[in-house]
Design brief:
By secondary structure, this protein is an all-alpha fold. It has a single domain, classed as Up-down Bundle (Ferritin). It is built from eight helices and no strands. Helix 4 packs antiparallel against helix 7, helix 5 packs antiparallel against helix 6 and helix 6 runs antiparallel to helix 7. 30% of the residues are buried.
Length: 155
């Protein structure tokens, strides 16, 4: 049963991750000013692969736990915001709205981490690196907004 659930959650993660292929950063993003601490491009797919495996594992573990309704709702909400950020930021090229979406993503990941921890502490712990990464992503989005005020005003 675990592997079936893991596969279902992994498919949801892959669906969210596919937005990166549909809306790649491209020249628009490359020309933006970014902070010196911006991770190199290769870090993003490696990190997201690991995080999606952790997220799918957490979801499968929690799905098998009793009284998991809130945790499952939080998991579903965070993956929706996860899949939304890339089309907003890279597709619409909207830095400000991207900040709103990543802020909502951060809140839903935090909520999911807490809710998952309550039904299965390992599932909750598997979301901690995700929360850290979304914190970095939100900080990067905010820095790009700050460093590119003319681009943000044009939206």
């Amino acid at each position: 049963m675990f592997w079936l659930l893991f596969t279902i959650f992994l498919i949801a993660c892959v669906g969210a991750g596919m937005t990166g292929g549909l809306f790649p950063p491209g020249p628009w993003y490359r020309q933006l000013r970014k902070p010196v601490w911006t991770p190199p491009d290769w870090v993003f797919p490696v990190t997201w692969t690991v995080l999606y495996l952790c997220m799918a594992t957490a979801g499968a573990r929690a799905a098998m736990a009793p009284d998991n309704g809130i945790a499952m709702a939080c998991w579903a909400m965070q993956i929706a915001f996860n899949g939304l950020w890339t089309p907003v930021f890279f597709g619409l090229r909207n830095i400000r709205l991207g900040m709103v979406v990543v802020g909502m993503l951060w809140l839903t990941v935090l909520g999911a981490t807490v809710a998952l921890w309550q039904v299965d502490w390992i599932a909750g712990a598997l979301f901690v690196p995700y929360l850290v990464w979304v914190t970095i992503a939100a900080s990067l989005n905010a820095a790009v907004w700050r460093l590119n005020p003319e681009e943000a005003r044009a939206q």
